[in-house]
Design goal:
By secondary structure, the protein is of the alpha+beta class. Helices cover 26% and strands 33% of the residues. It has eight helices and twelve strands. The longest helix has 13 residues.
């Protein structure tokens, strides 16, 4: 079994009714929404799924009930997006490219906040090979969204700042237009450093209106409390020594680990000079003339 299929089994996703992508999009594709996040142990996450089985469907893609996500986040040289989030500025923003690995689909996404504090997400489809970069069309899209949100940042000033990877299960209440996502196997990467969420926990997000959904009330009954947790913000804080964010680090100490390649024990000896190898003459294939 793959790690993703093990996660699906641990969450008990087979107990839910399946829904197609079109059904989920029609009922719950909220681009203007309020998100609430919870860190939940796997056993309680499974209990959550079980109790939502009567009202929620799980996104089912030809029998596959999870999707592997890769997201590259872009930021300015001085980490303007990171600082705007940590400082709680009204005009917060994020720019990323996202790849849905099994499906080979890619999107450029820009997230901003409206005047009421709700998240507004703008997306542009892109070819899979464009993942991890902002080409001309993507840059024009990013510039337009940020300009309309009165955010004085240009795509030309953005470079890849971190990559976040995880496996997601998406649940939707088709009648009331709300969603619940469960993200496991969460890691963040920058260079050779990696930060990882404890694999015995999942990040649960509810996505709906400003009013708490039934899933939020159920999570409270299960003992969960909302947390302020951005995958990029936490990951970048853990992977960059010296970034000032005590709230992130308190959360990270109990739920995340950070790894870096070990330093060499001794200075490496210079590699021996390569031994010249005779280069054979090229082979010429002769094709007889008809």
């Amino acid at each position: 079994m793959t790690a993703a299929s093990v996660l699906a089994a641990d969450l008990g996703l087979s107990a839910l009714r399946g829904a197609t992508l079109a059904e989920v999009d029609a009922a719950a594709a909220l681009q203007h929404r309020t998100d609430r996040k919870y860190l939940l142990p796997l056993d309680r996450a499974r209990l959550l799924v079980d109790r939502l089985a009567g009202s929620h469907h799980v996104l089912d893609l030809a029998g596959r009930r999870t999707t592997s996500y890769l997201s590259t986040y872009f930021d300015t040289e001085r980490l303007g997006a990171w600082h705007a989030h940590v400082q709680g500025r009204r005009r917060r923003w994020k720019v990323r490219t996202r790849l849905y690995a099994e499906d080979g689909l890619c999107r450029v996404e820009v997230k901003t906040k409206d005047g009421r504090g709700a998240t507004v997400k703008h997306a542009l489809r892109a070819p899979a090979q464009a993942y991890g970069q902002l080409d001309v069309l993507a840059a024009e899209f990013v510039d337009d969204v940020l300009r309309r949100a009165d955010i004085p940042v240009l795509a030309a000033a953005l470079t890849p700042a971190a990559e976040v990877r995880y496996v997601r299960a998406a649940l939707a209440d088709l009648d009331h237009g709300s969603r619940v996502t469960l993200d496991g196997l969460l890691t963040c990467h920058r260079g050779e450093r990696t930060a990882a969420l404890d694999p015995r926990h999942v990040l649960v997000e509810t996505k709906g209106t400003a009013r708490p959904a039934p899933a939020d009330r159920l999570l409270l009954r299960l003992g969960a409390r909302p947390v302020s947790l951005s995958k990029y913000i936490v990951g970048r804080a853990l992977l960059t020594p010296g970034l000032p964010d005590n709230d992130v680090r308190r959360l990270a100490r109990t739920h995340f680990t950070t790894e870096a390649p070990p330093a060499p024990l001794t200075e490496a000896a210079p590699a021996p000079a390569p031994v010249p190898v005779p280069v054979p003459a090229p082979l010429i294939e002769r094709i007889p003339v008809a």
